[in-house]
Automatic annotation (TrEMBL):
One of its GO terms (molecular function) is acyltransferase activity, transferring groups other than amino-acyl groups. It comes from Enterococcus dispar ATCC 51266. SUPFAM superfamilies: Acyl-CoA N-acyltransferases (Nat) (SSF55729). Residues 3-167 form the N-acetyltransferase domain. Signal peptide: none annotated. This is N-acetyltransferase domain-containing protein. It comes from the Bacteria.
């Protein structure tokens, strides 16, 4: 399936809310409830402590009809310089399993490398084995179990990392 990435802004809030409604299974899994308008606003404006909004980019994933089918939340230089954090990759259920997540990830990896990034980090809900399998297929490795926050709710997450630097061959 063809797709395109574009940076989302406040004017995209209605489309983001529709996506959050269509993909509400994620928030129900994470928190037991869903509130698409609030989730849409949070996707646009939430970022980690000690970071600024300028460090965050929320990409929209659009199909060939210019319909929002997913989002990718990305924070640069977090938790360390040259590390990037994927806060969320969320696709509407109707396009899951069509290699879009893999393609978007490959595109973002190339962008991060060209911007000098050396690693990508992300957190996976402990109760989301499908997401863990997806990220492991992309080359991410388990680092530790910790407590993370999703929509203001504390929960166990697995921290994963992908190194973008190749080890020196001897």
């Amino acid at each position: 399936m063809d797709y395109k990435l574009k940076v989302l802004t406040e004017k995209d809030l209605p489309a983001i809310a529709v996506l959050c409604q269509e993909a509400s299974d994620y928030m129900v899994l994470a928190t037991g409830a869903t509130n698409p308008p609030k989730e849409a606003q949070d996707l646009l404006t939430s970022f980690p402590p000690q970071k600024r909004l300028e460090d965050k980019t929320l990409y929209g994933i659009f199909d060939s009809h210019d319909t929002l089918i997913g989002v990718l939340d990305l924070v640069r230089n977090y938790p360390t310089t040259k590390a990037w954090m994927i806060g969320l990759l969320l696709l509407t259920p109707k396009v899951r399993g069509q290699q879009i997540g893999e393609q978007v990830h490959a595109q973002i990896v190339e962008q991060i490398k060209s911007d000098g990034g050396t690693e990508i980090r992300l957190g996976i809900l402990k109760n989301n084995p499908r997401a863990q399998e997806f990220w492991e297929r992309q080359g991410y490795t388990f680092q530790e179990e910790k407590i993370g926050t999703v929509a203001g709710v504390l929960m166990p997450v697995y921290a994963f990392k992908l190194s973008l630097t190749q080890p020196v061959q001897n």
